[in-house]
């Protein structure tokens, strides 16, 4: 039977391209739509096993769709697509249960590779369950009640049956519980099963049960296994050390999700060793977590990753990890290289790195790049401007001030407006206050940025102006925002 694959993207050309590719493959039955709501309806009606979904869509953010689709069908495997999203956004999707990601424009071989890996995960889960049963069960000794009818119709009946099963302690108990958990829809019953599985994990002498849970296609089971293993702390590390060498790249990545929460040198060693993993997603995860944990031993390898790594997502994560670590001895080499070759995907991360390690010449390069349109006027570039100007005690050039003043009305994000006004204020406080006053008449997102700027950096006259506006404005959303900011 063909595997049903749902493709969701707001670009019809992308849908048609992927539809043809899936049909030619022969294993898949593609369903395509530009509507997130229609896609969710299809997930509820059809036995969808794989979804390919864009991260950036006008009607619904890809992350929201990911969470809503998993709430309907926890087993569905979701592959996220992006052309220019920040590294943070892609990583968040992966952390929330996405199976993998694809970068636009597509490479046909890469699409097939990712699909192959997802299909293998589904098949591997079935094989692991069969193998676990074979190793644990003596068919002559064990009668296995498996159906929902045998367990009970109501949650109360199923909880009662669960306690009876726990009292019997059959040899295949963990694997019965795991199968049950995959089918159970009552939250209270699921939590009780997970609680028992956590106790079993603490007693297991090998890693088979943990491997089975982490290999589940259902995000709820995988996340539950991660939480349970993290609670066990250093006790679980011997299992993790063996699983970190497993051939399953998804499993190796989940090992890192556990290790990052364990304060033990062995856990840090697992993260460091993962920087050399053959799988890109594993290296990406390791780099992100090493930055979070402040493992300075990783700095030389992260710098090498930022310079040599072929995958741009991996390079971006390495840059952000170095920025978090606040140390990069090869900063001049990295910056010189990336000034010439930073792509739109990599640029977000490079600007965070530049904000931390850039010098006065880099500030000039950034200012010129923004004016000439080579560097997008966005949150990351404005944050970098603010930090570099403050660190080096510089004032923005007249050309940059004129450009920012001209472009202020084009922004639609409150934080971007707030940052832009900060830059203008570093050159001319009066001009910044005047510009903020004009922006108060814009959409609420723009006005909110101006209100926050005037409240924090404005003069006493600016504050009085806001208080008057809070009383007299005919826009209730403006009045409420000012009251919240000024705590009136």
Automatic annotation (TrEMBL):
The keyword Phosphoprotein applies. GO terms for biological process: phosphorelay signal transduction system. InterPro entries: ARM-like (IPR011989), ARM-type_fold (IPR016024), Bact_response_regulator (IPR050595), CheY-like_superfamily (IPR011006), PBS_lyase_HEAT (IPR004155), Sig_transdc_resp-reg_receiver (IPR001789). The keyword Metal-binding does not apply. SUPFAM superfamilies: ARM repeat, CheY-like. Transmembrane segments: none annotated. Keywords: Phosphoprotein. This is Response regulator. It comes from Thermosulfuriphilus ammonigenes.
């Amino acid at each position: 039977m063909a595997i049903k694959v749902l493709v969701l993207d707001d670009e019809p050309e992308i849908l048609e391209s992927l539809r043809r590719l899936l049909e030619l493959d022969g294993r898949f039955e593609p369903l395509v739509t530009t509507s997130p709501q229609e896609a969710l309806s299809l997930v509820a009606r059809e036995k969808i096993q794989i979804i390919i979904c864009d991260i950036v869509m006008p009607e619904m953010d890809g992350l929201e769709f990911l969470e809503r689709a998993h709430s309907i069908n926890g087993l569905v495997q979701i592959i996220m697509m992006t052309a220019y999203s920040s590294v943070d956004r892609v990583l968040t999707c992966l952390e929330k249960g996405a199976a993998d990601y694809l970068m636009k424009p597509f490479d046909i071989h890469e699409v097939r590779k990712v699909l192959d890996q997802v299909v293998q995960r589904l098949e591997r889960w079935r094989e692991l369950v069969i193998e676990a049963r074979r190793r644990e069960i003596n068919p002559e000794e064990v009668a296995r009640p498996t159906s929902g009818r045998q367990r009970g119709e109501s949650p109360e009946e199923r909880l009662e049956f669960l306690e009876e099963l726990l009292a019997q302690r059959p040899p295949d108990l963990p694997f019965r519980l795991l199968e049950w958990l995959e089918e159970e829809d009552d939250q209270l019953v699921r939590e009780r099963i997970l609680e028992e599985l956590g106790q079993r994990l603490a007693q297991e002498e090998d890693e088979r049960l943990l491997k089975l849970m982490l290999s589940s296609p259902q995000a709820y089971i995988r996340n539950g296994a991660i939480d349970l293993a993290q609670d066990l702390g250093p006790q679980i590390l011997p299992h993790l050390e063996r699983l970190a060498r497993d051939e399953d790249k998804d499993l190796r990545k989940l090992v890192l999700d556990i290790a990052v929460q364990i304060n033990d040198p062995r856990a840090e060693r697992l993260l460091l060793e993962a920087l050399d993993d053959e799988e890109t997603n594993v290296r990406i995860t390791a780099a992100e977590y090493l930055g979070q944990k402040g493992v300075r031993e990783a700095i030389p390898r992260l710098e090498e990753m930022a310079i040599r790594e072929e995958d741009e997502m991996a390079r971006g994560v390495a840059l952000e990890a170095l920025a978090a670590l606040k140390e990069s001895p090869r900063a001049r080499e990295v910056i010189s290289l990336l000034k010439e070759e930073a792509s739109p995907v990599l640029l977000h991360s490079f600007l965070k790195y530049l904000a931390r390690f850039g010098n006065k010449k880099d500030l000039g390069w950034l200012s010129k790049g923004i004016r000439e349109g080579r560097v997008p006027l966005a949150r990351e570039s404005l944050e970098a401007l603010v930090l570099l100007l403050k660190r080096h005690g510089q004032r923005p050039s007249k050309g940059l001030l004129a450009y920012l003043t001209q472009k202020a009305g084009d922004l639609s994000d409150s934080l971007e407006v707030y940052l832009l006004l900060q830059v203008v204020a570093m050159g001319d406080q009066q001009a910044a206050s005047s510009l903020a006053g004009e922006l108060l008449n814009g959409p609420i997102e723009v006005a909110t940025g101006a209100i926050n700027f005037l409240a924090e950096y404005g003069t006493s006259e600016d504050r009085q102006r806001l208080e008057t506006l809070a009383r007299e404005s005919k826009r209730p959303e403006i009045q409420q925002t000012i009251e919240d900011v000024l705590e009136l």
